[in-house]
Amino acid sequence: MLGGPLVVTVSFLYLGLLFALAYWADRRADQGRSVIASPTVYALSLAVYCTAWTYYGSVGRAAAGGAGFLPIYLGPTLAAALWLFFLLKMVRISKTQRITSIADFIASRYGKSHLLGGLVTVIAVVGVLPYIALQLKAVSGSFAILIHYPEVLLPGVAQEQPVWRDTAFYVALLLALFTILFGTRHLDASERHEGLVAAIAFESIVKLLALTAVGVFVTFVLYDGLGDIVRQADLAGHLQPLLKPPGGADIWFSFSLLSALAVVLLPRQFQVAVVENSSERQIRRAVWLFPLYLLLINLFVLPIALVGQLEFAGQNVDADTYVLTLPILHRQEWLALFTYIGGLSAATGMVIVETIALSTMVCNDLVMPGLLRRWRHQPPHTDLSRLLLLIRRSAIFVVLLLGYSYYRLAGEAYALVAIGLISFAAVAQFAPVMIGGLYWRGGTRRGALAGLSAGFLVWIYTLLLPSFAKSGWLPGDFLEHGPFGIELLKPQALFGLGGFDEITHCLFWSLGCNIAAYLIVSSSRLPNAEETTQATRFVDALKHQRPVVAGLWRGSAEVTDLIALTGRFLGEARARREFAEYARRRKLKAGGELPADAETVHFAETLLAGAIGSASARVMVASVAQEEPLGLDEVMDILDEASQIRAYSHELEHKSRQLQRATDELKAVNAKLQELDHLKDDFMSSVTHELRTPLTSIRAFSEILQEDPKIDLAERKRFLAIIVSETERLTRLVNQVLDLAKIESGHADWQSSEVDLCEILGQSIAASEQLILDRGGRLSQRIEVEHASVRADRDRLMQVMLNLLSNAAKFMAAENGSVEVWLQQREDSLLVSVADNGQGIAEALQPMIFEKFRQTAAGSANPMGTGLGLPISREIIEHFGGTLSVKSEPGKGAIFTFMLPASGRPENDTQDEAL
Amino acid sequence: MPRAKLIKQKLVIVFLAGALLLFSPLLSLFDRPVLLFGVPLLHLYLFTVWSALIVAMAWVVRDDSK
Question: What is the ipTM of this complex?
Answer without folding.
Answer: 0.94
